[in-house]
Amino acid sequence: MNTRFPIALLFLLPTLLGLGVFTIYPAIHSVYLSFHSVAPFSSELFFSGFENYTELFSSPEYWQSLKASCLFALFTVPPGLLVSLFIAVLLDAQPYVKTLLRTIFLLPVGISTAMAAMLWVFLFNPTAGYLNYFLSTVGITGPNWLADPLWALPAVSIATIWKAIGFNVIFLLAALTGVPKELQEAALVDGAGPFRRFWNITLPMISPTLFFITVVSVIHTFEGFGQIHILTQGGPADSTNVLVYNLYRDAFQNFRTGYASAQAIVLFVIILIATLIQFSVGRRRVHYG
Amino acid sequence: MKKIFGLLLCLFTQNLFAATDIDFWHSMAGAKGKLLEDIVADFNKSAGNAGKFNVKLQFVGSYDEGINKLRTSLMGGKAPHIVQIYEIGTKVLIDSKAIRPLQDFIDKDKEFPSDQLLPQILSYYQLGGKLYSLPFATSNPIIYYNMDLFEKVGIKTPPRDFAELKIIAAKLTNPKEKITGITWPLHSWLVEQAVARQGVELLNNGNGRTSPATEVNYLSPETTGFITLWKEMVAEGTFANVGRGWDPAEQNFLAGRSAMLITSTSNVFDIVKDAKFRIGTAPMVKAKLDQKGGGTVVGGNSLWIMAAKPEVEQLGAWQFMKYMASKDVQSKWHQNTGYFPIRKDVITELENSGFYKKNPNARTAIDQLLSSEQSLATSGALMGVFPEARDHIETAVEEILNNKATMDVALKKAKSRTEASLTRYNKMNTKR
Q: What is the C-alpha to C-alpha distance for residues A48 and A62, in angstroms, rounded to an integer?
């Protein structure tokens, strides 16, 4: 072992302490709690074995919730990535207004989730909101965004994508700036068109960043809570009742700490698996220059 | 030496006369929170208090957040003296045994104005003849209507029963101008109110008041009747379904997009002030005109004294409770919010001073409250799993309105979900 290890540990201590108290201990305690039921409004624990887990997996609401979470990831991650990439590429080609536009796109990131969601509540109002007003000017009758089980999840996804774009664009812009000019020029000399150059040079060069954003976005959507709490509260008809929201309800409205802890453990495993899959795909597809 | 002695004297006397802190956790945001701050500051300065107690107000977020903070604080032994809890938290707090029933203090203190408090409000917070907490901000649902739009189509009076509501909503609906007849929040509270309005209990065992509830009456004709009306109006396009939460429906009405709104009276002054049209108010509709009995249930919140603190401090909290129930505070709170006062004499006084002539809309909810027949139905349902039950009802209504399930299927599912929760709650409750 390195002789400087104790000193390194000393330097790491503040972080380890924080992580230990606020992350690691609660996580371990959740595992413990998930095997108990807790009396409402007290800390009395009653051991209940795997009861919480068996109830969880036999509950149709939980499976619906898992489905909602997967759909939510599907509606936010790929479209969010495509839109961000599109904007980043356009911005990269515009050296003069880049800084200004970059700031504008980053603005939503700076707004608190609750504030941003409140704005969308106003925008999504089916009769008094701007969104349907603009749609009506081009002759489209807008849907009943947040009150229609078919449209609620897409609506929440739109609000989520809007909020996340700035973050993605910043990272992608940095990556695009890092693509060596010589490679582009060499391809140009070889007679490659703009699409070819993008596909064969730009994309592989920025793939580590794309990969990073994908992983982060997937984790973020699985943990997305604020916008759902304000926009739909899991409704209509449980269509936006994603895993985290279901967990929140059981933990903080229904006072079922044990059952909610079991959900937290299952959610942890799901995110772990999703991330492992992405890494195994990423290993083959990502090009680390 | 003299200096040190003086300093010691100062420290000593300060300690001797230092006010005892009374922590008070509340959930009133915005203007209502500021008003509460003023009320508390007045108490701390008041001659009656004489500097003995210092009530420290702390905003703990929404009702849900407040009750959770209380729950964790009880585990950590850091609970406040007084806490404001929403009405549906009543059963959980009674069962928690972490509170002191207000009745304990009332019985020992003749100063408390028991005979001035409205029995219609007290009955919600009473169980087994004991008053558990002090009702503070109480409200019920009323109809708000846009008088300009009413005039335009030549309707003079607001609806009184389901049939009139349907006809009037249809008359007011104007697809060309994008105006729908009526809206209200997709909230279980309105279903509960509609059922009580018809004099029917929501839960078995005396609405959960004679013994803990084990069954729910979601399939009663009174429940299905109201949801049928709702669904029919959505299908006919005369009801604007704007989803969960209180804000969208209010926003819709204030933008002139819906001609009528059913919501809590707690915002009546703001709504009248913010509207760019003349507003009328009317009591919540009955099912049928000739229907007898029934009434509305009070919503809102109440103040609880926690049991963990030393007796002296609990008595300080009790002094503050008496102040909160005083005429001045009740009158001030009512005139600035829209929640109604809990005292008869405040209503009489404001009546005599001409306040209700100037603000007739503030009177609607009070009349409705006073005319409610007192029964287990209008006292309101008590259950420890109310937040869950509300979610089950709301999910069922959403499925029904959006044709995702039939009325029977959706309500049966909601019923079995709530009853499963009740069984679990009752089981856990007997364990402790």
A: 19
B180 touches A at CB < 8 Å: yes
pLDDT value of residue A181: 87
Contacts of residue A139, defined as CB under 8 A and 6 or more positions apart, other chains included, come to none
User: Which of B365, B394, B423 is where one domain is finished?
Assistant: B365
Q: Give the residue among A193, A237, A196 at the shortest CA–CA distance from B405.
A: A237
Q: Quick check: bond before A78 cis, omega within 30? A: no
Interface of A with B in 58-77 (CB under 8 A): 61
pLDDT-based confidence at residue B8 (cuts at 50, 70, 90): low
Partners of A44 on chain B (C-beta within 8 Å) are: 431-432
Task: Please indicate whether, in this complex, the C-beta atoms of A254 and B95 are within 8 angstroms of each other.
Answer: no
| Alpha-carbon dihedral angle through residues B104, B105, B110, B111, given to the nearest 10 degrees | -150
- Tens-digit pLDDT profile for residues B111-144: 999 999 999 999 999 999 999 999 999 999 999 9
Nearest to A40 among B241, B404, B428 (CB): B428
Average pLDDT, chain A: 90
- Over residues A203-214, the pLDDT tens digits come to 999 999 999 999
Residues of A with Cβ-Cβ distance to B64 under 8 angstroms = 252-253
Do residues A235 and B394 lie in contact, with contact meaning Cβ atoms separated by under 8 Å?
yes
Find, in chain A, the residue whose alpha carbon is nearest to that of B427: A39
- Domain CATH for B258: 3.40.190.10
**In terms of domains, do B41 and B89 share one?**
yes
The ipTM (two decimal places) reads 0.78
Q: Among B68, B74, B75, select the one facing A252 at the smallest CB separation.
A: B68
Asked if the C-beta of A44 comes within 8 angstroms of chain B's C-beta atoms, the answer is: yes
The boundaries of the domain holding residue B17 are 2-138+299-365
Supply the pLDDT for residue B1: 55
B20-26/B180-183 β-pairing: unpaired
Q: How confident is the model at residue B4 (pLDDT cuts 50, 70, 90)?
A: low
pTM of the model: 0.87
Chain B from 352 to 411: CB within 8 A of any A CB: 384-385, 387-388, 391, 394-395, 398-399, 401-402, 404-405
